[in-house]
Design a protein that fits this description.
With 122 residues, this protein is mostly helical. The chain has six helices and no strands. The protein has two domains: 36 residues; 84 residues, no CATH class.
Length: 122
């Protein structure tokens, strides 16, 4: 009986110690979303314009754009950045844009990176 208790105690302590060594850093946990999101060389023409075209332009263009917010060119997108309208809306979880659902996390990170770079027309 004493040997069984000793074995059980050693096994329990070993499991607890090994479980405490679990690698739970952000890159490991989210390697399919965050780590694979390339934030190098984020430019308006190659990165931001295609995201806007795919996710925003269907509602935010033409004669009467939704919310009176047109995103047809760099100047209009940069103005939306300056008014804080663009990032706040795409990063919102309570009232997300596009209305079809929250934008892909990598796309949001690319837009944020471009904004942090000063929203250049490149």
């Amino acid at each position: 009986m004493k040997k069984q208790f000793k074995f059980f105690t050693i096994t329990l302590v070993s499991v607890l110690l090994l479980n405490g060594c679990y690698d739970d850093n952000e890159e490991t946990l989210y390697r399919f979303t965050i780590a694979n999101c390339d934030l190098t060389n984020v430019t308006y023409n190659q990165t931001i314009a295609p995201i806007i075209q795919e996710s925003c332009i269907s509602c935010h263009s033409g004669i009467a754009p939704s919310g009176n917010l047109s995103l047809q060119n760099h100047g209009e997108v940069a103005a939306a950045v300056l008014s804080k309208n663009l990032y706040v809306r795409i990063a919102s979880t309570s009232n997300p844009m596009p209305p079809s659902g929250i934008m892909d996390e990598c796309k949001i990170k690319k837009i944020k990176k471009w904004i942090d770079l000063g929203s250049p027309n490149n």
